[in-house]
User: What shape does this take?
Amino acid sequence: MPTSTATSTGRRMLAAAGAALLAAALIACSPGQSAEAGPDDWTITPVRWNTALQPHAGVADQPETVDTVTDVAFGMPVLTDDAAGGFWAMSSGSWLHIDADGATADRFAVEAGDPLAVIDAAAAISPRALLVSRNDGRPVLSVLDTATMALHDLPGADDDFAFGDVAVHDGRYFAVRYRPSAQGYVDYEVLRIDPADGARSVLFTAPLAPTDAAAAAPELPPVAIDLNDDGRVHIASPSARIVLGVDGAVSHEQPQVADFPLVAAGPDGTALWWGGAPRSSSVRAVTTAGSDEARAAISAHDDCVGSPHREALTVSDSDGEHPLPFLCGARAAVWSGGAWVVSIGGEGDGVLLRLRAPGADD
Assistant: This one.
């Protein structure tokens, strides 16, 4: 079908806008000198990716752009692994896929109004499918075919008010659902969903207060979820860090005050949590590669006080919780390919990076 002039103009405007956001970051964005990490250091490695738009099945023709590799661009608030060692990153209508080898496998943009421009959360089902949540007009959970970019909506319910974060484990889907509460605000629920028939069960529910996550207003207070390999559910809410055991019972709960809580669980249950005020720690992170611009953006997230990067980072493992004095205020995080992939920053200072614990292989 012929492309309309309005649609072509919209894509040119989208490409131009993206180029404008990248322009400042791409100037002199050459790799800096690598630092040496000790055996007790965490390591941070910025991800380099090609900003050129590429054709993709199921997506409108992409404007012609120039191959440019960078490690600083714009913030990516949605991350998911790809079930094959790589990851997907999304920001409104901008999509990026990095494969297990670190290469830019897909990079394309869709226009405002496209359902693919309003993805609120995503989780990998398989190398070809993602579970996604959208709240554009109506709340809906969908399975996205990443080969064709076709969305297949899951059965809904009349009392679906809004959906938040999603996760996938052992063939089951999980989602955060918000519902109006009898007390006058909203509760959040963690749902387990059978993909065969859409049957739902509520694993956990808790109230949210109007004062929760004030900085996130007017959006609903964020609640993040993730699962590790044995099926434990990690929940980061504005008021608590919670772990549900495989039997669904609360096995751990730690109070916190957070505007933008976040959690990303590794396979063995070691988890990164963002939320609350920083605590003193002698742990060190070393940035082992990256441009000067990426390094500066990463260093800006060392300060959780007096900056927009307010949520401090904590790691939990079998020995308890341990504060980490770096990467405050992440936008998104996910375990993929033997490391955590973390998104920080916004327009002009957005960085995707790999974070590895001491002793982890590169």
Remarks:
- The helical segments are 5-26, 292-299.
- The radius of gyration is 20 Å.
- The first helix runs from residue 5 to 26.
- Residues 1-33 have pLDDT under 50 and may be disordered.
